[in-house]
Write a structure and sequence with these properties.
The structure is a single chain. With about 350 residues, the protein is α/β, with parallel strands linked by helices. Helix content is about 50%, strand content about 20%. The chain is built from 14 helices and eleven strands. A hairpin with a 2-residue loop joins strand 10 and strand 11. The longest helix is centred in the C-terminal third of the chain and has 19 residues. The chain binds glycine. The site of glycine has 6 residues, from loops.
Length: about 350
C-alpha cells in the first residue's frame, strides 16, 4: 500500500510502517519514548505493537481510562504529571496507540508539554484511522462539548496497521464506517456505494482512499478557514446529538459514527430543502443509514436541547450556526445558514 504524504509528515501502511518508525526514532535520537494507551489498547493492541517496535531507547507506558468521558483536561494533567515524574524532556517522543480519544488527547498533551514534543499517531480504530489521526487536529472536550480545547499540531508520522481492526467490535467498525460514508457523499461516491451495496468490504482500500481525500482537503486548508469545513459534513447536527446523548443519564451513549450517521440523514434532508439535493438520493441515504445503524429514537422533547448544543459548534461565527450542505453527491457548499425550524423538521424526517 503506497504511503501518503501529508504536509509535514508521512502516513505509512502495514509492515513497512514499522521499519519507517524505527528509522524515524533512530534519526531523531529521542531521549525516551512514552506510549499512551487506554485499558483497551493496553490489552488488545500493545501486545502486537511492542515486539514490532525496534528501539533500544527507554520506553514508558502511560495508561488512561478508555472512553469519550475521559477526553478532558483532567486526564491531560494526569498524563503531564506522569511524564514529568518519569523525567520526560523536550527530546522525548510520545506515541499514541489507540482510537480518536487517545490520538486527539495524546497529540494535545505532546504539543503543549514543555511547549511541544514530537508525537506519532498509531490509530487502532477505524474511526481514528480514517479521520482523527490525520490532519493535525488535537484536543479535548469541555464538559460534554466536543473538542472545544485544542490546537492544530502535526504528528511526525502516522503508522497505519489495519491488523488492529481485528480488536474491534462490529459496532466500533460501523462507527468508523460513518466517516467513510462522509467522504463518499462529499468526494467519491464509490466509497458510499461500496459500503451500501457490499457485504464483503475491502476495508484497507476504503481506508487508503478516505485518507487520500482527507489529506487533499487538509493540504488546501490546514486550519479550517474554508474548504476543510466540508469534513464536518453530518457533524453539525451529529455533534449536537452526540453531546446530548453523552449528557443525558438515562440515554445509552451513541458512538461518534452513529451520531454522525443521524446527522448525515438530517443534513441531507436540509440540503434537499435549501439546495435541491435530489429527493431519490435523499431516500437512498436514509434507507442506507437505517439499514446499517438501525433507527435510534430521538424524542421530540429532546429536539430543543440538541439544537441548543449545536450553538457550540466550532464552525459557528457570531452566534450563527454554519452548515455544510450538498447540492448533490460530491457537490457541496460551506457556510450555509439554516433556520431552526428546518433543523427540527430534519430530526422529524430522520424519525419518520
Ligand atoms: N474531523 C474533521 C477534520 O479533521 O477536519
Amino acid at each position: 500500500m503506497t504511503s501518503i504524504k501529508a504536509a509535514t509528515y508521512p502516513i505509512h501502511f502495514n509492515e513497512k510502517a514499522y521499519t519507517e518508525l524505527a528509522n524515524l526514532i533512530r534519526f531523531n535520537n529521542y531521549s525516551s519514548i512514552f506510549i499512551l494507551v487506554d485499558d483497551n489498547t493496553l490489552t488488545h493492541c500493545y501486545p502486537r505493537f511492542m515486539p514490532l517496535l525496534e528501539t533500544d531507547k527507554t520506553i514508558e507506558v502511560i495508561q488512561i481510562d478508555a472512553g469519550e468521558v475521559h477526553k478532558n483536561i483532567e486526564t491531560c494533567v494526569g498524563v503531564w504529571n506522569v511524564m514529568t515524574e518519569l523525567g520526560a524532556d523536550r527530546k522525548s517522543l510520545l506515541i499514541t496507540l489507540g482510537g480518536g480519544v487517545i490520538t486527539d488527547l495524546g497529540g494535545f498533551v505532546a504539543s503543549t508539554f514543555k511547549r511541544g514534543i514530537d508525537f506519532i499517531n498509531i490509530p487502532t480504530t477505524l474511526l481514528s484511522m480514517v479521520d482523527a489521526s490525520v490532519g493535525g487536529k488535537t484536543g479535548v472536550d469541555l464538559g460534554v462539548l466536543k473538542n472545544q480545547i485544542g490546537l492544530f499540531a502535526n504528528p511526525k508520522m502516522v503508522l497505519l496497521d489495519p491488523e488492529y481492526l481485528h480488536t474491534l467490535s462490529a459496532r466500533e467498525i460501523r462507527s468508523g464506517t460513518a466517516e467513510i460514508i462522509k467522504y463518499g457523499m462529499t468526494h467519491d461516491i464509490r466509497l458510499f456505494n461500496e459500503i451500501k451495496d457490499n457485504a464483503e468490504l475491502n476495508i484497507v482500500d476504503l481506508i487508503h482512499r478516505s485518507i487520500e481525500i482527507k489529506n487533499e482537503v487538509v493540504l488546501e486548508d490546514p486550519t479550517e478557514q474554508n474548504i476543510r469545513k466540508v469534513l464536518n459534513w453530518g457533524h453539525t447536527i451529529g455533534h449536537g446529538i452526540e453531546s446530548y446523548f453523552l449528557d443525558t443519564p438515562n440515554k445509552e451513549n451513541l458512538t461518534h459514527g452513529e451520531a454522525i450517521a443521524i446527522g448525515m440523514v438530517c443534513e441531507t434532508y436540509i440540503s434537499s430543502k435549501i439546495l435541491n439535493f435530489p429527493s431519490d438520493k435523499l431516500k437512498e441515504v436514509k434507507k442506507a443509514i437505517h439499514a446499517i445503524y438501525g433507527k435510534i429514537e430521538i424524542k421530540e422533547e429532546d429536539f430543543s436541547s440538541i439544537t441548543g448544543l449545536m450553538k457550540h459548534d466550532k464552525k459557528n461565527v457570531g452566534g450563527e450556526i454554519n452548515f455544510v450542505l450538498l447540492k448533490n453527491y460530491g457537490d457541496f457548499q460551506i457556510n450555509c445558514k439554516v433556520p431552526n425550524k428546518l433543523i427540527i423538521e430534519s430530526l422529524e424526517y430522520y424519525n419518520s
